[in-house]
From TrEMBL:
Keywords: Membrane, Transmembrane, Transmembrane helix. It comes from Phytohabitans maris. The keyword Transmembrane applies. Gene3D superfamilies: P-loop containing nucleotide triphosphate hydrolases. The keyword Metal-binding does not apply. This is NACHT domain-containing protein.
């Protein structure tokens, strides 16, 4: 494995030196304290927990060194490339049906002389700048001046595979079919790769289709951006079986080919910089898809050297007529025959000129379920220009999508609400200059103060309810004082306000507790472990040993966080395979816990020592042993299961779609909340039981501890789950939009329904409008037609019960 990618574990000599320093410091402190019991207990506890962290770090380093030494980097990289190809195929194959790309509208392309350089530079003929730079892919022929002159969509792959420059640009106007061409070419490239012999497959890169909008070429290198997108979109690449930082290695070793869609959506100032970076820094094949005007503007300041610029041609009226005629298995209606005849007989009419792109032809195909509705489109002198025809077709998208279908129950949402809500979404996206509708970024479209206030109020209610439950159920048990609901509500207000602010500051696409891809340290698990250990140790030790308990809690948090970050599933497991599919509940739990055992030990041992040692020194060894074991085992189980199931989920799959991403975030936040609730609840219950045991028998102390632990655990679960949740913020946002009439109460159901109706489409974990022209049209009509707001609509037919 190259030296730059080899793991560099902490030197064991350095760890031994830290242990010696720590031991010497402990001896000095004990000698200076003169045998003070509290100081001795604190020193012993701090030293033992920190030493545990060092030992765990050393063990992790040794394990990793042994594990990675036996890994074959070439074989692991080849496996990662094959799995990535499978995932990309799963990602885009559904688009064939979703966008009706099977039997696509015939589109042709031609060499764009004004926006291309010399043909020799692209095809690599003698004297060309790119001569011999990229040999043809195995099983394909080298591109020539003749093969790049013109062709149809099936020939795009041959050009991509045979260009010596490795640079291709596909240009066209709005609705010309660029995205469809990108998807079809990617899938054809993947199919070709499957047919290549295993020995030659390393020479065939995996085509990865990314949107350019998130790339800032001035601040982020191309390699960093592509590697980051791969690791984010295809989380299975984090699995240890591929080796460290496999996403970057795939890019660096030319195992991926970059298909970059939406180049025109980059900011105008970014486009020339991006072309320069692609010319100078891109080491793999690059295919760019862009609107012609924006690309031409960028080329005036920079160029993609050696690129073959291919312009998609308008659909001739005769071709459009033939395509529409073939749609009908039976004899077409008179209206459809009139439409086909009009296109053939009057190629210069506004109607024929408008139906010159795949977008408008598909709109004509999809938005006239009732042939009688074609009469308006065919009315003589109805349209004075192609733009008027296109606007008419765009106006028909929503009525066609939300029409009642014979034999089917009424839809969830009616046309009036859908038009208003989709218009609002299009306007908000247009205001931000984006084509991507990411649910975790929509919170910027409504007041954050309202959501913070709602979370603050929820915090007060939860704290008051917790205090009331504990007081009502335990105040009659022995000599006991409990906090009243009023003071608890005040504390809850403060905590809720802090959680509300924290939630609003999160800018998080869906992730998990798995940490960055290829990382040797998992900061997410380290943070969760450290905070949970600090809370549990503070609750347990504060009432028993006083102020030194806070020092011990900080040391335990540092030790547990560091050890857990090192031991979590970034490098210890030998594979990222899924859990056994038929293992049953017990088998699934056992398999998940086995994979997460290192992280569980890394958290459980420090908190067990941190709580057990001081209690044992102050109250006797039996008490310390019981406390340490109970809390330590609780943390071991909680963090072992969390880490194990995070590792087990790294299976080969396409990127999450938006609704799955929403559900995954919800599951992740509930899981994190349960871990905190279990850990803190046990600590609170043990602490309360210990306090009661000083003056009451066990039959009184134990029930009190159980009630306190359960109540505090539930409250902590709610608080922690909300803190890490993006869906909580999204839920509040949808309620805000519903209150002012801009959206339904449960917006994700509405968005997914719009996707099912082919108004929205899915690209990875975000939605997009079916076409950018539809988004622009809806935004324009929404702004012009929106009346002054007087309040939300009186009813939301069909939405309240299912949205």
């Amino acid at each position: 494995m190259p030296g730059s990618e080899r793991l560099r574990p902490w030197p064991l000599a350095g760890l031994a030196f830290l242990a010696l320093v720590l031991g010497a410091a402990a001896v000095v402190v004990v000698m200076v304290a003169g045998g003070d019991p509290q100081v001795v207990a604190a020193v012993v506890s701090v030293a033992s927990t920190l030493l545990t962290g060092l030992v765990t770090a050393a063990a992790t380093s040794l394990w990793r060194r042994r594990h990675w030494r036996g890994l074959d980097p070439s074989a692991a990289l080849a496996e990662a490339a094959d799995d990535l190809a499978e995932a990309v195929s799963r990602q885009w194959e559904p688009a064939l049906a979703d966008r009706r790309l099977r039997g696509p509208i015939p589109v042709r392309w031609a060499w764009s002389r004004p926006l291309s350089g010399r043909v020799d530079d692209a095809v690599g003929q003698a004297g060309g700048l790119a001569h011999g730079r990229f040999p043809p892919l195995p099983g394909t022929a080298a591109a020539t001046a003749a093969t790049v002159r013109s062709g149809g969509l099936p020939e795009l792959f041959a050009v991509y595979a045979g260009l010596s420059s490795g640079r291709m640009v596909v240009l066209g106007g709005p609705g010309a079919g660029k995205s469809g061409a990108a998807i079809l070419t990617v899938l054809e490239a993947l199919e070709h790769r499957r047919g290549v012999a295993a020995g030659e497959r390393a020479q065939v890169p995996v085509p990865v289709l990314l949107t350019a909008q998130t790339w800032d070429p001035r601040r982020q290198s191309l390699e960093d951006w592509v590697a980051e997108r791969l690791a984010s979109d295809f989380r299975f690449l984090r699995a240890p079986k591929y080796g460290p930082d496999v996403a970057r290695r795939l890019v660096r070793e030319r195992r991926v080919a970059l298909f970059l869609d939406g180049f025109d959506e980059l900011a105008a100032a970014f486009r020339p910089v991006a072309l320069e970076v692609l010319s100078e820094r891109a080491t793999s094949r690059v295919v760019l898809f862009s609107r012609t005007e924006e690309y031409a503007e960028a080329v005036r300041r920079a160029s993609l050297r050696g690129a073959a610029a291919l312009a998609l041609r308008p659909v001739p009226p005769r071709v459009a007529a033939d395509y529409l005629a073939r749609l009908h298995v039976a004899e077409p209606s008179p209206q459809w025959r009139r439409l086909v005849d009009r296109l053939r007989a009057a190629p210069g009419s506004p109607l024929a000129q408008a139906l010159a792109s795949p977008l408008t032809v598909s709109l004509a195909r999809d938005t006239f379920p009732d042939p009688d509705e074609l009469d308006e489109l065919l009315a003589p002198d109805r349209f004075a220009s192609p733009a008027e025809v296109e606007d008419h077709l765009l106006d028909r998208v929503l009525p066609a999508a939300y029409r009642e279908r014979p034999g089917q129950p009424p839809g969830r949402y009616d046309l009036a609400h859908a038009r208003r809500w989709l218009g609002f979404l299009a306007t908000a996206m247009d205001r931000e200059g984006t084509r991507e509708l990411a649910w975790w970024r929509m919170h910027r479209w409504a007041s954050a103060a309202v959501r913070v206030a709602a979370t603050t109020l929820l915090g007060a209610l939860t704290a008051a309810a917790t205090a009331a439950v504990i007081g009502g159920l335990t105040e009659d048990f022995g000599d006991r004082d409990t906090i009243d609901a009023g003071p608890a509500a005040i504390v809850g207000l403060v905590i809720g306000f802090a959680i509300g602010l924290a939630v609003e500051r999160r800018e998080s696409p869906v992730g998990g507790l798995t940490g960055p891809a290829g990382a040797r340290f998992n900061p997410a698990m380290a943070l969760v472990s450290g905070i949970a250990v600090w809370l549990a140790a503070s609750l347990t030790l504060g009432p028993t040993v006083g102020a030194p308990g806070l020092v011990i809690a900080l040391a335990a948090a540092a030790a547990a966080g560091t050890a857990t970050g090192l031991a979590s599933q970034t490098g210890l497991q030998r594979s990222g395979s899924a859990l056994p599919p038929q293992a049953g509940a017990a088998g699934t739990l056992r398999a998940g816990f086995t994979q997460g055992l290192p992280a569980g030990l890394a958290t459980g041992i420090p908190i067990g020592l941190a709580t057990g040692v001081p209690v044992g020194l102050g109250y006797g060894a039996p008490a310390g042993l019981v406390i340490g074991l109970v809390i330590g085992v609780t943390f071991l189980l909680a963090f072992g299961l969390v880490d194990g199931f995070s590792a087990a989920s790294l299976d080969v799959a396409a990127p999450l779609d938006p609704i799955s991403a929403w559900r995954q975030d919800r599951r992740r936040s509930v899981t994190a909340g349960l871990v905190f609730g279990l850990a803190v609840g046990v600590a609170a219950g043990v602490t309360d039981a210990m306090a009661m045991a000083r003056h009451d028998p066990p039959r009184v102390a134990i029930p009190v501890g159980v009630v306190t632990g359960v109540a505090v655990g539930i409250a902590t679960t709610v608080a922690a789950a909300l803190t890490v949740s993006s869906t909580w913020r999204g839920t509040l946002l949808f309620l805000q939009l519903r209150a002012r009439g801009d959206g339904p109460a449960r917006g994700m159901h509405f968005l997914e329904d719009a996707h099912q109706r082919n108004v929205l489409r899915v690209v990875g974990s975000v939605y997009q409008f079916r076409h950018a022209r539809l988004q622009d049209h809806l935004a324009r009509t929404h702004r012009s037609a929106r009346a002054p707001k007087t309040g939300p609509p009186r009813s939301e037919p069909g939405a309240d019960g299912v949205a």
